[in-house]
Amino acid sequence: MNLNEFLEGIKSKERCTDCDFKSKLEIEPALIPPPTEIVGIVISRDPTVRWMHFYKYIENEPQEDIRRKMLFASAIPLALINRILEFGEITEDGCLFDMVFQNVYWTHLHKCFTDPNGKGPIKSKKINLQLCANFWLDEELGYAIGKKTKFIIALGKDVEKWFNKRENKWKDRVQIIYLPHPSGRNRKWNNKDDKNIKKTIRDLFKLCRTVT
After folding, report:
1. Is the whole model's pTM more than 0.85, yes or no?
2. Which domains does the chain have, with CATH numbers?
């Protein structure tokens, strides 16, 4: 089995017996096509219903590479790049854009769309985040991490907590990079003197230089 075949299994929800979203047929996982060569992986918390209509519209694009780049430009990957560049630690020369848009795979702890405001039948719940990640993400990373994969970017507290329990499983194969979620609500990015974020950005650019 390869990563694309594994993603088909996620789409079918074949392991989701204990999740509240199993019976919600109108909600499907948000699955982003992987690049041909994966040098890095970005993991965010969950796709939101605000993004769902754009996602479903882009599903009609027949070329996977174009579809992936459009999804990146509409959501977390581009938002993360902008946050890093706004931090002003390093002058961008196209390295980061090239790496992310060409060779990064993007996935989530929770695969199905949720309502971040906690309203309605698809509100985000911690228990579903954990269930979904435990059902899918461990094995998904096994398929996504290859010989040329150098790093995983874990975005936000929920992803960090999940990885803290499993870091030893992956740290010998890839570098684990922790960054705040790039949401506009996240004030951690406002402190341009944050030493941890500065160091992390420098480390990310060092990796960038080795793969572009």
Report:
1. yes
2. 3-211 (3.40.470.10)
